[in-house]
Amino acid sequence: MTAIRMALNELRRVSSGKLPKLALLALALVPLLYASLYLYANKDPYSNLKHVPAALVVADKGTDQLHAGRDVADELVKGARFDWHQVSEDEAEKGVRDGTYTFALTLPEDFSQALSSPGAFTPRQGVITLTTNDANNYLGSTIANQVVTEVRRSVSVKVGEEAADKLLLGFSTIRQKTVEAADGATKLADAQQSALSGTQQLVDGATPLADGAATLAGGLDQLRTQTKDLPAKSQQLASGAKQVSDGNATAATTAEDYAAKAQALVNGLDQVNGDIATKLRAAGMAEEDVQKVLTALTTAKAPVDDANGKVQGAAGQLRQLANGAKQVSDGAAQLAASTPALTDAIGKLDDGAGALASGAVRLRDGATKLRDGEQQLVDGTTKLRDGLNDGVGQIPNPDDPTRDATAKTIGDPVNVRGISQTAAGTYGAGLAPFFLGLATWIGAFVLFLLLRPLSRRALAAGQTAVRVAVGGWLPGALLGLAQVVVMFSVVTLVVDIRPSDPVGTLAFLFLTSMTFVAILHALNALLGAVGKFVGLVLLILQLVSAGGTFPWQTIPEPLYPLHYGLPMGYAVDGLRHLMYGGELSGVGHDALVLVAYLLGALALSTLAAYRQRVWTPSRLKPELVL
């Protein structure tokens, strides 16, 4: 018989009957099923990161000009790369620990202040806190780190451009111009101080002038009062020579006294004129204006000079009158004729002195106002000078180390401080829970390529279904435990992947192996050769839905029920927490689910043993044998 004929006979044998034909079709579809589902589930996991829950804590208080924390949070939420949940710090920490969130991103309360710190030359980095837990998913932490790196880069670029623009642009020019302005203000203040000194001298000169004019006016007023009766007395003198002769000595003395006072007044006025001219020149008044003032004073003093001359003449006449009685009558007549003119002159001089005193007071008041205005101007220019000098000191002029630190902070304003609640350590360790769970399933699968799921002798002997089922499961369970011991020993001692809780990990692997053995035992016992195929299909479905590499939330939503409904996802989750030192509360839930699968599988095996107590033609000669 040729090889071709043997091949055709074998194909005819395995395809005879309806069920073998379906088996051949199913076997032909296994590669397609495996490739299509696996590629479908992992085609673009990054596009489904929006289903991965992540905690976002925005504690940033911001500043008057910058609210970086809020801006970053808005961009993250708007980008929708993850399923962001804005929560408190305590909620985020607890959520990452118990698996509610894959990771947490925290923007601290001083985030904006730190980003603005280079402007005050107190540079410090803004810190973004990334909290991860490899017990939730190893690759989830890696993806989170990439997101934080992107956030860091965008913040660095934005803040770096703003800070550099505000901090460095025009500092040298501003400082130079401010120094020039301060120098100008200093010169202006000095000039104003000099002007104030001159104005003060003007006030001082105007004050003596006003005092002198007031004194002159007072003396002339007194003289006017004293000489108002002089004409009547002169007339009386002319009326009687005897009376004149008797009082000539008194009259002469009085006249001489008046003459001396008048002369002193004239001399005082001359002295006042000289003092006024000197002070006006010292105050900076132009010579032409000084001469005008002197001319005005001379004009005002002319009646005084005239009156003084008359007083001096009258005094001489009185003295002559006193020298001779004969001349009394003539002198009295002359005096009587002269005294009205004298009193009129004294009155005019008194009036002029009053006007001079009033003008001097106005001059003094005006000079005082000018001085007060100059003082305010001096105060203003002094403040301007001091303010500009202070401003020069406030304009940044950092030394080289400070400038270098500021430049580095502008270029790299954000630092990431990672808080890892648990860590796998290596990529292999990160994938170990998935491959250990997968290995226990495959180990259970190959066991029943050799082992019979149910003992035919026990069935023929009429043993109870429960005993037959447990008896059929125990050999596989014991061999599965042996598989776990060998596998765990090699992984920990040779591959050097050290679980955080080795005893708990080994115990959980025992439970996982016994559960998977029970499931595959039930499938083989209940479905026979078809059960092997179903076990293979379940393996494929769990590969794509257990979340062994990427977070399980990244698989397409139609596959979500597979994650919740098949046991390997719970096995991988429990192993992660035990191997990485994560929260153990979830391990209890995972263990309970596996125990439920174990008991359910044993129940199905019992049902299969019960049904196989009766022999049927299909059992005696099955259509499909694997």
From TrEMBL:
Annotated region described as Disordered, given as residue ranges: 388-409
Parts of the chain that traverse the membrane: 427-451, 472-494, 506-526, 533-552, 591-610
Domain ABC-2 type transporter transmembrane: from-to ranges: 422-606
GO CC terms of this entry: membrane
Top-level division of the source organism's lineage: Bacteria
Main location per the UniProt record: membrane
UniProt xrefs under InterPro entries: ABC2_TM, Phage_infect_YhgE_C, Phage_infect_YhgE_N, T7SS_ABC-Transporter, xxxLxxG_rpt
Protein name per Swiss-Prot or TrEMBL: Putative membrane protein
Organism: Umezawaea tangerina
